[in-house]
Recover the amino acids of this structure.
């Protein structure tokens, strides 16, 4: 395993999700089939909501969804499968209320329990074998990835069914233990606030503070959700689906579990008009009713998909896999290797079975195989538990070759010095550099905005005075070479200066293993008490082993072309010379071992060198071996009594980390990459023919069997230490595990034995498994290197002096075109022109070549190296991507689009089904909590807010176009809701220089984008050409003009097509102007020219019934639907938000009363002095509205 091994003392059961549902297809064009991988899938809320909210261009055939669910906890998958089978049965819609009870209530009424038991009776026989499942009635919706998964799921169904056969004494004990478990969770929370479910209300989070706390306490008191219904049936029966888990039959439901967390609570409260301090019980009922209604609506969408379909016609397929996420991803890498009898990977920590996927689904010869690459990979918050680098290393190779393909990561646990910037701490390096090496990058990092709101987290931090234990951050990672994946001509390979690459990898190494840094530990101990306790609490959360690092290097090797033997040698020198990591030298042997397994070569580790060393030392441990390979496996059998004496201490110590150690004289070698299980070791054979099988004890730590651990090790290590001992120890950390030293001593050793003592220690060629199948330790578990043929133009990466940030990117272009060579030889001028953020055009006379850089660059300041005789040009361009965001005049490149086989694809703007977004109307009550103003205002970073409030741009004369654009969006959204005056729903984007509008925007509704915790204006955009505008004046007599300068006009030109594309439900025509011009937008650089419409005409006039009824036929004929929402600042790039008592009001209050724009000096009305305008024109336009309230002072 690439992750460290935690002692399995306390395993929490997560039957329900702790974040609200998201639409898994929100980045995919509606034409694309969705192959989705859910890692740590949890409950099926994301699937249910996706089926409901998904966008399709066909009203008859919905998008095909093929969803693979992986979860370590088979009980979760058993619950999920139960739910889907209930929905697939006839009459499911009539039973949705009962199905809610079964899935979300810990205590059940008789009717709900009866349905649960009845369903289990149907399911248990189907789980006997994969064949019986395939022949059953549910195979068209739920597929099992292997027999082990079906067996584990079936085991839980049997346990649930078995509770119906309890006698009175058994039933009483079962109920008593269950209720005691609930009571133990409830007790610590009886007097405090429980804020976890607040984030599910998005921008209305503060309104739910008391309601979600009370709902949580009621749920953990009664075991049911209270929606205020008077005819609630008594619920006196424990729900078996909450009673059993990997922790056995002991109650293990996580203490944060709350049924409403997975739903969108904002829908219940957006128009409620409630006050911020309300403690009304009606709020509890509202949010529970909303959650139940959403569940019902989503389930009905699933029912329509799955009923009356077959395996061949199914548009929704859900595949179940029970096992650890990293192991499953690695197993998928091997699917297309038919020579492999099975994947050489253990299913999960504390398991000895290897992953064996079902041939009927995963064999290459299968007619319709299960997907092994995915355009959506959702990782939940696994980075908190497995580490971001571990996750990205195994998921990036599984990401399909499409510009819309996305990996989602979520973090809940805080990291680093700032919760909002915790993601940077998880990266173990500079964001640009790490992204370049991995090949994926957070989309918002390039665009400098996100359409997903983090308002709830900002508010929760403020309420908790920055002491909140969680901070939810969701990132979308995309291929770094966006838009050029399928065109090999644009694929460039990376190269580095050898010392810079080795230095960068060493820097990553130091950060991955910073827990071994003594200086860091001392710095933690010097903190104040509150900070100290929090740092110590999280100091024991360690994710990486030397295997993690080796697999990361193996992945980087597929992207970077260089002499990797030299890189590894240079890196080895740096590691050997390092004195930063206190125990770094102890892990050196494991480091080399894992590098060897990952396919890297070290000159002193070869078969010849091993033979030579063996002949010199003649170690007893290998005397019966004819041939000794470079890597072998050590197996240690730890007697149960050695564990029993400290077992309770281990289980109470949080997450103690186990590692193996080999000691001899002064030599001390540690190994963190170990496998373990409880059971009996059966050994046969001698020498290199010795093999071992583990007969696993399913009772685990509750049983009496010995603990069997194994780990790979260099044979040279054993030759040098053959007279020493091998032991199992607890890793020394600052956390609770440190207290174990009082019992175990400073070495923290649980047990040790001589390496030659075959009662406890064995040396094998292969690691033992739970069957006769074995794992070859020497098998490289990584993809092969790139072939030696150069593709496209190579990109050389130059680091800065500190070797921590990328300074420049150099593209090498061989001029192979005859005319180009002639121009180059004849001395023609060579120029380079910036085309977009990461594209430049090289010109040599009439010869042109488009250069695609992997990261944004500044082509205007690029240096040229021209080799006229050798016929090549090198463009050395400064890399411009940075976390230090500043105001810029040209931001058009931030709105990236590309084509995916002719279909427009967006970079950093999620898609949505507007008809699935609930509409709302803000309350007019002065006492009502004003959530909308602060929410829309929070799209401004603190830097932008300060600039707006000062009406200047401090230290710069450059206009901040992104801020101005947000200003315009703010004006539109606030005006459309009438939050600060009369409602305006007709707008014109207006260029004062041309004195003409270039687009008309009609807002027909304001909706909640509940999946992204924000709002969206359901809008229609009409071109600003004179002929259309002349006709439009007959229907629309008054518009609110939003003034934009030349830079902002160009930004709108790039933005408007995206706002249209993101909510598209129609297909682009074969004659689409985008394809004809090979450009999105059309006519880039034309700014506010109304004659050059930036969006295509494919969607014009589609679905415009609402406009025809409200305005007339002209509006309906020329309008195209668009989804306009705030563009939020990126929290890890800029400081976002304000304290709850911040005196600064909503930004619009400082803007022009007519157009809302800020950022420029304003003039007050000469009569009342209460309102201000940016120009005389705006004052004249607003007079009709303002004169009714203008009172002379």
């Amino acid at each position: 395993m690439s992750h460290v091994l935690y002692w399995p003392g306390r395993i929490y059961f997560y039957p329900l999700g702790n974040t609200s549902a998201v639409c898994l297809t929100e980045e995919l064009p509606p034409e694309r089939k969705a192959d989705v991988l859910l890692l740590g899938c949890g409950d099926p809320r994301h699937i249910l909501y996706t089926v409901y909210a998904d966008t399709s261009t066909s009203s008859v055939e919905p998008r095909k969804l093929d969803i693979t669910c992986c979860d370590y906890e088979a009980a979760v998958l058993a619950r999920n499968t139960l739910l889907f089978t209930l929905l697939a049965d006839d009459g499911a819609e009539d039973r949705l209320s009962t199905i809610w009870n079964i899935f979300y209530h810990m205590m059940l009424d008789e009717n709900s329990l009866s349905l649960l038991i009845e369903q289990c009776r149907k399911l248990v026989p189907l789980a006997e074998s994969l064949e019986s499942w395939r022949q059953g009635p549910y195979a068209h919706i739920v597929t099992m990835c292997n027999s082990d998964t079906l067996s584990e799921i079936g085991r839980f169904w049997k346990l649930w069914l078995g509770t119906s056969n309890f006698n009175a004494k058994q039933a009483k004990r079962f109920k008593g233990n269950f209720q005691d478990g609930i009571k133990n969770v409830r007790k610590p929370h009886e007097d405090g606030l429980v804020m976890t479910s607040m984030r599910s209300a998005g921008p209305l989070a503060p309104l739910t503070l008391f309601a979600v706390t009370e709902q949580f306490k009621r749920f953990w008191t009664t075991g049911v959700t209270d929606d205020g219904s008077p005819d609630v049936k008594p619920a006196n029966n424990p729900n078996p689906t909450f009673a059993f888990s990997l922790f056995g039959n002991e109650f293990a439901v996580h203490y944060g579990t709350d049924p409403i967390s997975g739903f969108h609570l904002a829908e219940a409260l957006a128009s409620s008009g409630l006050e911020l301090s309300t403690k009304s019980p009606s709020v509890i009922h509202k949010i529970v009713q909303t959650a139940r209604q959403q569940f019902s609506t989503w389930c009905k969408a699933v029912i329509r998909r799955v009923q009356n379909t077959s395996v061949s016609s199914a548009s929704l397929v859900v595949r179940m896999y029970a096992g650890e996420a990293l192991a499953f991803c690695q197993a998928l890498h091997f699917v297309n290797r038919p020579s492999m009898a099975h994947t050489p990977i253990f299913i999960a920590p504390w398991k000895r079975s290897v992953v064996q996927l079902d041939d009927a689904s995963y064999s290459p010869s299968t007619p319709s195989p299960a997907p092994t690459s995915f355009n959506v990979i959702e990782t939940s918050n696994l980075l908190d538990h497995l580490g971001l680098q571990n996750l990205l290393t195994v998921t990036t190779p599984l990401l399909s070759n499409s510009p819309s393909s996305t990996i989602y990561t979520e973090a809940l646990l805080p990291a680093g010095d700032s919760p909002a910037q915790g993601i940077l701490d998880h990266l173990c390096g500079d964001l640009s550099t790490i992204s370049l090496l991995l090949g994926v990058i957070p989309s918002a990092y390039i665009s400098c905005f996100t359409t997903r709101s983090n308002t709830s987290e900002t508010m929760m931090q403020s309420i908790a005075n920055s002491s909140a234990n969680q901070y939810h951050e969701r990132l979308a990672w995309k291929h770094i070479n966006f838009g050029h994946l399928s065109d090999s001509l644009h694929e460039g390979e990376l190269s580095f200066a050898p010392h810079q690459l080795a230095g960068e990898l060493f820097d990553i190494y130091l950060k991955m293993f910073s827990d071994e840094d003594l200086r860091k530990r001392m710095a933690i101990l010097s903190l104040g008490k509150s900070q100290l306790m929090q740092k110590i609490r999280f100091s024991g959360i360690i994710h990486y082993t030397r295997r993690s690092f080796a697999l990361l290097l193996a992945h980087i090797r597929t992207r970077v072309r260089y002499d990797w033997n030299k890189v590894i040698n240079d890196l080895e020198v740096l590691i050997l010379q390092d004195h930063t990591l206190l125990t770094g030298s102890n892990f050196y042997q494991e480091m080399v071992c894992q590098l060897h397994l990952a396919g890297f070569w070290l000159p002193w580790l070869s078969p010849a060198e091993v033979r030579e060393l063996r002949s010199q030392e003649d170690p007893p441990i290998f005397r019966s071996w004819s041939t000794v390979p470079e890597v072998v496996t050590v197996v240690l059998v730890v007697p149960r009594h050695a564990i029993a004496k400290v077992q309770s201490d281990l289980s109470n110590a949080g997450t103690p980390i186990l590692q193996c150690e080999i000691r001899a004289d002064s030599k001390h070698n540690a190994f963190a990459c170990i496998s373990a299980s409880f059971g009996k070791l059966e050994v046969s054979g001698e020498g290199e023919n010795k093999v071992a099988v583990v007969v696993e004890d399913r009772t685990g730590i509750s049983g009496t069997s010995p603990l069997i651990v194994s780990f790979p090790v260099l044979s040279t290590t054993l030759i040098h230490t053959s007279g020493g001992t091998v032991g199992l120890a607890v890793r020394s950390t600052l956390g609770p595990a440190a207290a174990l030293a009082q019992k175990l001593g400073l070495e923290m050793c649980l047990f040790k034995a001589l390496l030659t003592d075959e009662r406890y220690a064995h040396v094998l060629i292969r690691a033992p498994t739970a069957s006769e199948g074995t794992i070859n330790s020497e098998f490289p578990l990584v993809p092969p290197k790139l072939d030696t043929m150069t593709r496209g133009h190579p990109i050389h990466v130059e680091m800065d002096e500190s070797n921590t940030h990328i300074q420049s990117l150099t593209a090498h272009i061989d001029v192979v075109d005859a005319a180009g060579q002639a121009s180059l030889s004849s001395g023609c001028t060579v120029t380079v022109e910036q085309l977009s953020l990461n594209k430049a055009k090289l010109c040599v006379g009439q010869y042109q070549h488009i250069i695609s850089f992997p990261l944004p660059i500044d082509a205007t300041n690029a240096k040229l190296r021209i080799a006229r005789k050798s016929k090549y040009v090198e463009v050395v361009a400064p890399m411009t991507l940075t976390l230090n965001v500043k105001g810029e005049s040209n931001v058009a490149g931030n709105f990236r689009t590309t084509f995916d086989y002719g279909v427009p694809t967006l970079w950093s703007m999620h898609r949505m089904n507007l008809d699935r977004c609930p509409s709302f109307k803000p309350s007019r009550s002065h006492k009502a909590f004003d959530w909308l103003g602060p929410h829309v205002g929070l799209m401004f970073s603190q830097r932008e807010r300060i600039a707006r409030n000062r009406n200047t741009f401090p230290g710069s004369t450059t206009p901040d176009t992104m801020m101005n654009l947000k200003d315009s969006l703010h004006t539109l959204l606030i005006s459309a809701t009438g939050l600060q005056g009369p409602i305006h729903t007709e707008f014109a984007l207006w260029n004062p220089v041309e004195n003409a509008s270039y687009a008309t925007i009609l807002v027909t509704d304001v909706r909640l984008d509940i999946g992204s915790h924000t709002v969206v204006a359901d809008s229609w955009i009409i071109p600003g050409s004179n002929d259309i505008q002349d006709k439009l004046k007959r229907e629309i007599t008054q518009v609110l003009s939003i003034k934009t300068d030349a830079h902002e006009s160009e930004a709108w030109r790039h933005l408007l097509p995206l706002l249209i594309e993101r909510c598209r439900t129609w297909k682009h025509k074969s004659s689409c102007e985008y394809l004809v011009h090979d450009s999105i937008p059309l006519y880039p650089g034309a700014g506010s020219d109304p004659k050059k419409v930036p969006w295509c005409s494919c969607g014009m006039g589609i679905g415009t019934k609402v406009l025809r009824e409200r305005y007339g036929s002209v509006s309906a004929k020329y309008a195209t639907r668009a989804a306009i929402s705030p563009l939020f600042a990126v929290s890890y790039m800029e400081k976002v938000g304000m304290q709850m008592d911040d005196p600064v009001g909503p930004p619009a209050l400082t803007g022009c009363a007519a157009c809302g724009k800020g950022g420029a000096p304003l003039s007050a009305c000469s009569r009342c002095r209460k309102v201000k305008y940016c120009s005389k024109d705006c004052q004249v336009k607003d007079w009709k509205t303002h004169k009714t309230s203008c009172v002379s002072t």
